[in-house]
Amino acid sequence: MSPLLQLPVLQADLGRIEDELVASVQANDDFLTEVASHLIRAGGKRVRPALALASAGARQPLLASASSEVVLGAVSVELVHLGSLYHDDVMDDAEMRRTVESVNARWGNLKAILAGDYLLAKASEIAASLGTEVAGLLASTIARLCEGQVLELQHTFDAGRTEQSYLTSITGKTASLLGTSCRVGGIVGGLARDDIDRLTAFGINYGMAFQIVDDVLDVVATDEQLGKPAGHDLVEGVYTLPVLRTLVDDAAGADKLRRILGGPLAEGELDVARDIVRSNGSVDAALATAETYARTAQESVAEFGDGEAVQAMTAATDHLLGSVAAIAR
Amino acid sequence: MSPLLQLPVLQADLGRIEDELVASVQANDDFLTEVASHLIRAGGKRVRPALALASAGARQPLLASASSEVVLGAVSVELVHLGSLYHDDVMDDAEMRRTVESVNARWGNLKAILAGDYLLAKASEIAASLGTEVAGLLASTIARLCEGQVLELQHTFDAGRTEQSYLTSITGKTASLLGTSCRVGGIVGGLARDDIDRLTAFGINYGMAFQIVDDVLDVVATDEQLGKPAGHDLVEGVYTLPVLRTLVDDAAGADKLRRILGGPLAEGELDVARDIVRSNGSVDAALATAETYARTAQESVAEFGDGEAVQAMTAATDHLLGSVAAIAR
Question: What is the CATH number of the domain that holds A48?
Answer without folding.
Answer: 1.10.600.10
